[in-house]
Each structure stands twice: as C-alpha cells, then as structure tokens.
Specification:
Strand content: 25-35%
Largest sheet: 9 strands, mixed
Number of domains: 2
CATH topology of the largest domain: Rossmann fold
Order of helices and strands: EHEHEHEHEHEHEHHHEEEEEEEHHE
Number of strands: 15
CATH architecture of the largest domain: 3-Layer(aba) Sandwich
CATH superfamily of the largest domain: NAD(P)-binding Rossmann-like Domain
Helix content: 25-40%
Distance between the termini: 36 Å
Strand order of the largest sheet: 14-13-12-11-7-10-9-8-15
Radius of gyration: 20 Å
CATH class of the largest domain: Alpha Beta
C-alpha cells in the first residue's frame, strides 16, 4: 500500500518532515501548501512537487488522490486546515498543539471518530525511550501511588522568536506556554496517565504581546486519585535548546528526570536508569511520522491520538483564563459535547 500525503506548512520543520515522508517507500508526497512564495519555491525545488498558496487550492487539485495531510502551520490555523482535510476524507497529522481552543479540539476529535479517520498530534515524547521508561516506572508502582509532580522548562525563547508568528497571538494563540510548554504539559499528563482537573497561576509577558514566563499550580486526576502539580515555563532563559524535567513523588519514593537522566529514589536505594536507545530529534521525528503512516495503513495504532491533544488544549485554555482572571478554574470535562 502507498499512502499519498500533502504537507500544509513548508517552513523549516515542515520541510524536514517532508524529507522523512519522502524517504518512506510506502509514501508518495503529492504537494504542499504555504502562504510564503519563498517557502513554496524552496519546497518545489527540493521535492519536485507542486506547492499551493491555500489548502483549498491543494484539495481542488489533488482531492481525488489524496489520503492524508500533515499540518505544520501557525497554531491558530490548525483547526480550519484539519477540518478542511477531514471534509475531504483525509487522515490528519497535526503538529502541536492540536488547536488553541477546547471547542475546536473537541470538534476535530469528534469528526475523526465519526468518519473513521486517523487524527494524530506531534508530541514526540511519546516515542522517546526516556519518557516511555518514566511512564512504565510509574505504571508498575515503582514509587507507589503518585501524589505530586513538578514539571519545568526553560529556554531562550523570546529572543529567538521575537518578530515571528510565534509572538503574534492571532497566529500563535499564546506565548512560550502554548509553544514549547505544550510538550511539557503533554509529558506530565501522559507519563502520569492523568487528566487536568483544575488550574491557577500567574504569567509575565515582559512587555511583549504574549506570555514569556508562567508558573501554574494544578490538580490532576489519575483514575479518581488527585495529584498536586506545579508547572514552570521560562521563555527568557539562556539556552536555545529547552532544558526541561519532571519529578514525580509517590507514596513510596520519587522519580526525577533531568539532563537526560532518570533517577529513582525509594526508601531502599537511589539508582539511575540507563537508556541506550537513540532519542535525538530526527529519530523521534521519523518515528512519530512513521507511526502516523502505519496508522493510516491500518498496520498499527496511533500512539498520539487526538484525545491527547484535546487534554493539553483543555489544560492550557483554562490556564490562560485563570492567569488573566487571577482565579482557580476547573478544567472542562474532556468528554463533554
């Protein structure tokens, strides 16, 4: 079977993902979409495929042959583009976040379910052997019952992104919390197999149009058990590459992930967990795209379904409202219509 795919968003990451798709023997890259003439020209030169200015133009030209689209565009465009693709009966891969509003995230998930389409979100930590091992250690009761978690992320985000679409709230939906912070929130929820229940916090724009630093306090729900959570996101750090980590406390110990190292502490011992599998960016990108193709072909289950993206959007939408109003908000029921 050969899967025909088009790419929406032909910037740096979009073209890197196209290179992976093009390397798969069972994928045909049909074309691409971008509002930038330079991006379209570069894509056509690199992949010898046509590029269009709009999703509508692409679908008009290729709808009969197209089976899937891969969306790597500014955050607030995800909903409209993904819906247009699903209306054309296409499976959809969406880079994070799924959408910037809970209502639109629900619509995408419901539409994919109704039409039997794959909707996958680009959270690569689900493929990272380090985070997979962290989730396994929690699941197997290594530290007993989880009771609290601290998640943090810092990078020199605002200096790098100043003047780009990521600092335009009309396109980004928010600042560092909605950008790199989505990965952190997803990792926290996924490793704990938990859903957001309530959140409050503060945010600092530092004179910009979007948040730069955020500090959140939250309550998570793990199968009826409450977990206390703190999330700190700094967009005014010193490194371009994110420095992120998690510590999960349980009734019988705690697990810390920092600087690529997992440390498990129990009353009996403290030990490091060795991870030997590759976990570089290109490897994880290839694995998440490969899983999407396999899910479209029906040979594997999607590892990062739309429901994961829905949970992150629900958490962040409530977090933004809570920080603006200075209140604690309950997170809407993820299953509500």
């Amino acid at each position: 079977m050969t899967v025909t795919i088009a790419a929406l968003g032909l910037g740096g990451l979009g073209r890197r993902e196209c290179a992976h798709y093009a390397s798969f023997d069972d994928v045909t890259l049909v074309g691409g979409v971008d509002v930038s003439p330079d991006a379209r020209e570069t894509f056509e030169a690199e992949f010898d495929r046509p590029a269009y200015e709009s999703t509508a133009d692409l679908l008009a030209a290729h709808e009969d042959e197209l089976e899937a689209v891969s969306v790597c565009t500014p955050h607030t465009l995800h909903h409209e583009q993904a819906m247009a693709a699903m209306d054309a009966d296409c499976h959809v891969f969406v880079e994070k976040p799924l959408t910037t509003e809970l209502a639109t995230a629900r619509e995408l998930v419901a539409t994919a379910d109704e039409r039997g389409l794959v909707l996958q979100v680009g959270f690569q930590r689900h493929f990272d052997p380090l985070f997979r091992e962290l989730r396994r250690l929690v699941d197997t009761g290594t530290i007993g019952t989880p009771t609290a978690v601290n998640a943090y992320l810092g990078q020199d985000w605002i200096d790098l992104q100043a003047g780009t679409w990521r600092t335009n709230p009309g396109l980004s939906g928010g600042g560092e919390l909605f950008d790199s912070g989505t990965h952190l929130v997803d990792a926290m929820l996924w490793t704990l197999d938990a859903e957001p229940a309530a959140v409050t916090g503060i945010a600092d724009k530092q004179g910009h149009d979007v948040d730069v630093n955020s500090a959140l306090a939250a309550t998570l729900d793990r199968n009826g058990q409450r977990i206390t959570a703190s999330v700190c996101v700094c967009g005014d750090g010193t490194d371009i590459v994110p420095d992120d980590g998690l510590t999960i406390w349980g009734s019988e110990g705690h697990i810390s992930l920092r600087d690529g190292t997992l440390t498990v502490t129990t009353p009996e011992s403290t030990r490091r967990v060795e991870i030997t599998e590759a976990r570089d960016f290109e490897t994880l990108t290839r694995e998440k795209l490969r899983n999407f193709v396999d899910a479209v072909e029906g040979t594997a289950e999607s590892v990062v379904t739309g429901e994961y993206g829905l949970a992150v959007t629900a958490f962040l939408e409530s977090a933004y409202e809570a920080t603006e109003r200075g209140v604690t908000l309950e997170v809407d029921d993820l299953r509500a219509p």
